[in-house]
Every structure is written in C-alpha cells, then in structure tokens.
Design brief:
There is one protein chain. It contains 15 helices and 24 strands. With 491 residues, the chain is of the alpha+beta class. The chain folds into four domains: 117 residues, no CATH class; 64 residues, Dna Ligase, domain 1 (2-Layer Sandwich), CATH 3.30.1490; 133 residues, ATP-grasp fold, B domain (D-amino Acid Aminotransferase, Chain A, domain 1, 2-Layer Sandwich), CATH 3.30.470.20; 103 residues, no CATH class. Helix 2 runs parallel beside helix 4.
Length: 491
C-alpha cells in the first residue's frame, strides 16, 4: 500500500528569511479589481505578483498590470460585479493560465459567486470566507465581539425604536442622553449613520431607521483615526494610524464621503496610540477565534474630552488606506503589512516576534508623513473626456502649476512635498459625470490642517490635476450608456 505523506511546511525564521522567500516566490499571485490601486507597489517585494484590473490606468505601460482589451458594455452594480466579470473574462483567464503554478487570487470585495468561480477554475482565493466577512461586517456584531475582547465602543445600547419617543426612552435608560449617533448594521458610514439631537432629526431619517436593528451611541467630541492590521497565527500586527479626509466638495459630491487620508506622527498622541494598538490587537484576537485570518481595517475614536479610546468600525477586508501603510518606514524596516497576510495563505510557518514587530512599527510611525486624495467629479454634469492626465509623477511649481514629469509605476519613489503620483482612472473617451472616479493622488506631507481644512498645497494639486482634463458636451448622436457609480478605489 502506498501512503502519500505531505511535506512539512518550512519555517521562515525572521524577517530576512521572509524577504528572501518572497523574492524567490514561484507561485503566481494576482490582485483583481477595478484598478491596481489598493496593493500597487507590492510587485517590488514579491516575485510573480500581478494585477488584473478593469481600467488600464497606464495604457499598457505597467509590466505587471493586465487589463482586457475587449470590454463590452456591462452595467455593474458593485465592485463584486467587476471582480466576477474579470474572473469570467476569457482574456483574463488566458493571462492567468500563462503563469506557471496554481494561481493565488486576492481582491477587496467578493461574494459567493466569486468563491464558486475560483473553485471552478482551480484558483486559491487567499481571503477569509465571504460568509464570515459579511457577518463580521455588521456594526452590531463588531460591537458585541469588541465588548467581549475588552475593546469597547463609544457608550451605546443595541436595540430598535419605532418612534422618537422610543429612541429617547432607550437611550435614557442607558445613560446616553439625547444627543445621539444612530447606526444601522451595514452600509457606508456616510449613508447609514445618523446624527439625532431632536425630533426633527428623527423625522428626516425615520423611514430608514424604523424596523432595523440599531446601535445607539452617545455623541462624543472625537478624533477618528484609521489603521490596518493583520491577524496571523502568531498574533495581530498593527499598522500606522492615519486620519480621514471626508466630504470636501472639491473632491466628492457626497457629504461625509471618504476622499483621502493623512498619515502623520501626531494623528494620535503617544498615549492614545498605545491604547489604540491595544484595542486593535484585542479585537484581532477575538476575530481569530471566529476563524478570521488576514488583513482588516479598523476605525478608532478618541474622546477629546476624556481621552478615552474606543473601537469604531471594522472593515474585514483590504482597504483604501493600504497605499499609505505600504510605504511607511515600518514597511521598509520589515515588509509591507499585506505581505504578512499573503504569507498566512502560503505553505510556510513564520518564526517572528509579533510584540517586537508591533513595537518597531509604533516607534517608526514617528517619522512618516504621507497623504492621498481620492478624486471624484463633484459637479452635476455629463460630458465626454477628450484628454486626461496620464498616470505618473507630477511636479508642483512655486506658481501653483502642476506639470507631468514622467510615467511611473507607483508612488514609492516620491521624495518631497512638491512631487505627487497620480493614478488616472477615467481617461480619454470615457464619460465625466457626477461621482465619476478621476483618479488617486499620493504625495509626501499633509493635505489637511489640524482644524479640518484643505491645505493650500492640496488645493493646488486638485486644481493642477483638473487643468489636465479637457472635456466637451455630448452630442445627440452620442448619448451615454447608463453609468455605474462603483468606486475604482475599491474601499
């Protein structure tokens, strides 16, 4: 009788061995999405790392980005739709098949269909199961698990309310007062989070709130910070903290819509950062008990009146903040954070000191300053794009002009605040409309002031990029097809 015995998993001892292993990787890894934005630059670290994207932001100039050339009109309703379309596309399948070895596939958003397609094609989907991710994505589930882990949310109560009087009775019984933040379990925070201080506020949102499970929170004077982390079998590694840019009308038509990040040492004080890291690690440990392994993003809230640090929201997925995390000093001292995720889905064991890594990343956070802008069309219009800025490096002149320097593959070579990298999304021939993705800009230095205003340099970058667009009206014989509002950043 022949008994096959699987080979033991090799153990990588320390960061040096991990780097060597990734540089010699022979199994192809593919990041699939509307654009390559979220994990752009990781091909510098991992051999045989490729991007499959719907939009060809480099017009064929990026050697690791593949975009199908034949794209008949499809009315996408979600990022999952785009990813599943790409997985089913014959050109994409031929490209993936041209690489030796079983494909490993990652993306931001997936669903049950994604899992079925990957199983049919023999791809290894290197992400936690869709059902688990969807359950953990509930703000109510996050609250319960955080409480169990010793990572509490802002003082709150979970329940339902059929009227304003019931809402106030519920909040009063739990000492939350009448100035409230009410959240539904799912959805973007700008669309399913409601600020209710009086009955007229309730009336404006009652149709959406009544009949839903709710998280009712005391409204606090807070500072929010976002952070990415990775749950490994050795423990949870926490990245650097950054603040959000939200709702700026120069960048987005959506009030409260996410439109960028600032990563800088003073995003949190040293004490706040230490407490926030502990909150994230506690949550990571509890998520691991649920079977979750790999990358996730968390928002933490600091009460500026009491200095208490609270768990905010959980995004159990790769996020739009990865562009910042992957160029920090911590990433270059060790490896980019996402690669710890990748290693959990490869046939290796890691011999690393998680406490040491977290302490090093915490110390190195004091030297990094990066920012990004997510640029959408804010105006209510429909026009044809005749010319658009190319993807690459730009220089900001003293007089405020922004000039194209060179085509570049990513933002890792940006060294000063008068440089930026712009990833173009919609290009010549596309339609410009309210909410359309223009592109993503990454630079050194901050783009938002302490009092929540865009810096003058930020405004110059925005104006400079927009000056490179040439658009015109659409003729009667050139009517646009129905338009999708799927974010190319995949956040």
């Amino acid at each position: 009788m022949n008994l096959s015995v699987s080979a033991p998993r090799p153990t990588l001892h320390g960061i040096s061995a991990i780097r060597s292993y990734l540089r010699m990787n022979t199994s192809p890894v593919f990041f699939i999405g509307p654009t390559a934005f979220n994990l752009l630059g990781l091909d510098r670290w991992v051999r045989n790392f490729f991007y499959v994207s719907y939009y060809d932001c480099w017009d064929g100039a990026h050697p690791r980005v593949f975009a199908p050339t034949t794209k008949p009109y499809v009315e996408f309703t979600s990022s999952e739709d785009i990813n599943n379309y790409l997985l089913r596309d014959a050109e994409v399948q031929r490209f993936i098949a041209s690489k030796d070895g079983r494909p490993r596939v990652a993306m931001v958003f997936l669903d049950e269909e994604t899992e079925r397609i990957c199983a049919e094609l023999g791809y290894q989907l290197i992400l936690p199961p869709d059902a688990l991710r969807r359950r953990l994505d509930s703000k109510i589930v996050t609250t319960v698990l955080g409480n169990e882990a010793g990572a509490p949310s802002v003082p709150n109560v979970l329940g339902r309310a059929e009227s304003y009087q019931e809402l106030i009775a519920l909040s009063t019984a739990h000492g939350l007062g009448s100035d409230l933040v009410v959240q539904m379990p799912y959805g973007d925070s700008g669309k399913t989070t409601f600020f209710i201080a009086e009955e007229t506020d309730w009336a404006a949102y009652a149709e959406e709130i009544v009949g839903e499970d709710l998280k009712v929170m005391k409204r606090i004077n807070n500072r929010a910070a976002a952070v990415e982390a990775v749950i490994t079998r050795n423990g949870t590694i926490v990245g650097p903290f950054m603040t959000d840019l939200t709702g700026y009308p120069e960048l987005t038509p959506y009030p409260g819509g996410w439109c960028g990040n600032d990563l800088y040492p003073d995003a949190l004080s040293e004490k706040q950062r230490g407490r926030a890291i502990e909150v994230v690690r506690r949550l990571g440990g509890r998520l691991a008990q649920e079977g979750y392994l790999g990358f996730f993003e968390v928002d933490v809230l600091v009460d500026l009146d009491t200095d208490e640090t609270y768990l905010g929201e959980l995004n159990p997925r790769i996020s739009g903040a990865s562009s910042m995390t992957n160029v920090t000093a911590g990433a270059y001292a060790d490896i980019p954070l996402f690669l710890f995720h990748l290693l959990e889905y490869m046939d290796v064991n890691l011999d690393v000191d998680i406490d040491e890594i977290n302490e090093r990343w915490k110390e190195l956070a004091a030297v990094d300053v990066w920012s990004q802008l997510i640029m959408k069309e804010p105006a209510d219009l429909i026009e044809r794009i005749h010319a658009a800025p190319g993807t690459g490096t730009y220089h900001l002149h003293d007089d405020g002009r922004l000039s194209f320097v060179r085509t570049s593959l990513d933002w890792h070579q940006i060294a000063s605040e008068d440089e930026c990298f712009f990833l173009r999304v919609y290009g010549p021939g596309d339609y410009l409309f309210k909410g359309a993705d223009l592109g993503i800009l990454v630079t050194k230095g901050r783009l938002q002031t302490d009092d929540g205003q865009l810096t003058e340099r930020c405004r110059q970058f925005i104006a400079g990029i927009r000056s490179h667009y040439i658009t015109g009206p659409i003729g009667e014989a050139d009517l646009p097809a129905p338009i999708s509002h799927i974010s190319a950043s995949g956040y």
